[in-house]
């Protein structure tokens, strides 16, 4: 830590010389004494011995959702140790914001604060640097290297009560009603007693009502329960905010969630909801199929999925991707902005293979204010082509779900998909 003298030393010595000259000229010994004391004080302050290096230390707490559920709050504690300093000037720089400076008194102190972010995944939340100020502001010194708080923020999990299911669940046990008769599910029908039916299933009221001959027995049949395979496929080709005017440079530092934030939230919300029902869930990213998480369930698989979803970042696709492999009879959930043709092609292939496909639109709510004329024309062309792709997806028989909408609208869309499967 190299000390840099400040103008306070020259000002102190200059003032002392003027006081000594005035003492000689006017015969004032008191001014001479004050001048000598000022010289001694200035010299002592500027030559104070070093007692250790100044250190900045950042500690982070446990992230939690804010009150409106639109971001995450991360507690932060800053500890400062600057032996020999009277003041410490701390500079805090957050991405996309102006630097803020705070003056702390004392050589050792601690400050607690909260950092809010609307983004998930790996990110730099803030950078902290410090400058120490010596006694009487006679010197300053930089406090070593700056400290950057890097954190991995897990995506927020929305509550999903109604879940779309494949046409025919393939598992033999689980938490969903299968179309075949069995045990554990909802009421199916009243059926004449047949070999293999258990005596405990005889419905005596129905037998008394429907029996026509002695020996007629009727049993109450229920639906069998089954688990399902769910293949989550995330399109990582874009990372855009809802502010259309910023799409050209894709500035993530804005205080707005991006399409990748929405995709991570949707993927983790759906994965957690299916895992809570003991279903088999897999996860793949279009540009990095080698990082796929194979199908599974349970607590350990839940942690693997959460970690894999949290680290997904945007990666531009240079060519057509290899089609991700999904299990037979699986429900395919494709999360994309649909700003190019590749997701439409993949949805068509999966539909042709007999899969039920749910296309989750992860583009944030659009903001088109303050656009120039040429930007308005470009936005109309891009959004018009996107609307055509969404219409083509619907025409294939794919269920379309917009994620970044009001919670009631999203829940209603999911409920409609669930009822559609039950009717089928």
From TrEMBL:
Domain DUF58 residue range list: 192-364
Pfam families: DUF58 (PF01882)
Basic and acidic residues: compositionally biased ranges: 177-187
Positions of the UniProt region annotated as Disordered: 166-187
Name of the protein described by the UniProt record: DUF58 domain-containing protein
Naturally occurring in which organism (per UniProt): Microbacterium protaetiae
High-level lineage: Bacteria, Bacillati, Actinomycetota, Actinomycetes, Micrococcales
């Amino acid at each position: 830590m190299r000390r840099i003298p400040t103008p306070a030393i020259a000002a102190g010595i200059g003032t002392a010389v003027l006081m000594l000259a005035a003492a000689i000229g006017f015969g004032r010994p008191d001014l001479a004494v004050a001048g000598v004391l000022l010289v001694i004080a200035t010299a002592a302050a500027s030559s104070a011995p070093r007692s250790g290096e100044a250190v900045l230390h950042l500690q982070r707490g446990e992230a939690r959702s804010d009150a409106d559920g639109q971001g995450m709050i991360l507690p932060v504690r800053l500890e400062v140790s600057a032996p020999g300093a009277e003041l410490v000037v701390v500079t805090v720089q957050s991405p996309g914001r102006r630097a803020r400076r705070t003056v702390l008194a004392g050589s050792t102190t601690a400050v607690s604060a909260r950092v809010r972010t609307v983004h998930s995944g790996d990110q730099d939340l803030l950078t902290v640097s410090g400058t120490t100020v010596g006694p009487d502001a006679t010197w300053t010194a930089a406090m070593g290297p700056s400290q950057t708080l890097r954190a991995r923020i897990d995506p927020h999990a929305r509550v999903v009560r109604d879940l779309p299911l494949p046409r025919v669940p393939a598992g033999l046990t689980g938490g969903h009603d299968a179309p075949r008769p069995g045990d554990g599910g909802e009421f199916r029908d009243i059926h004449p007693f047949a070999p293999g039916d258990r005596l405990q299933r005889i419905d005596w009221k129905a037998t008394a009502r429907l029996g026509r001959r002695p020996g007629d027995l009727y049993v109450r049949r229920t639906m069998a329960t089954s688990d399902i395979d769910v293949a989550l496929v995330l399109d990582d080709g874009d990372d855009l905010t809802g502010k259309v005017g910023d799409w050209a440079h894709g500035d993530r530092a804005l205080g707005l969630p991006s399409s990748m934030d929405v995709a991570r939230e949707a993927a983790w919300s759906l994965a957690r909801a299916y895992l809570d029902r003991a279903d088999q869930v897999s996860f793949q990213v279009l540009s990095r199929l080698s990082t796929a998480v194979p199908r599974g369930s349970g607590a350990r698989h839940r942690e693997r999925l959460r970690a894999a979803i949290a680290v997904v970042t945007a990666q531009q696709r240079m060519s057509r991707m290899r089609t991700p492999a999904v299990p037979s009879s699986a429900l395919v959930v494709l999360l994309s902005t649909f700003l190019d043709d590749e997701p439409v092609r993949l949805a068509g292939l999966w539909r042709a293979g007999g899969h039920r496909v749910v296309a989750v639109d992860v583009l944030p709510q659009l903001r088109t204010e303050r656009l120039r004329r040429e930007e308005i024309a470009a936005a109309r062309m891009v959004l018009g082509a996107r609307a055509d792709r969404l219409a083509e997806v619907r025409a294939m028989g794919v269920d379309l779900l917009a994620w970044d909408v009001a919670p009631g609208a999203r829940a209603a869309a999911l409920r409609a998909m669930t009822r559609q499967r039950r009717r089928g």
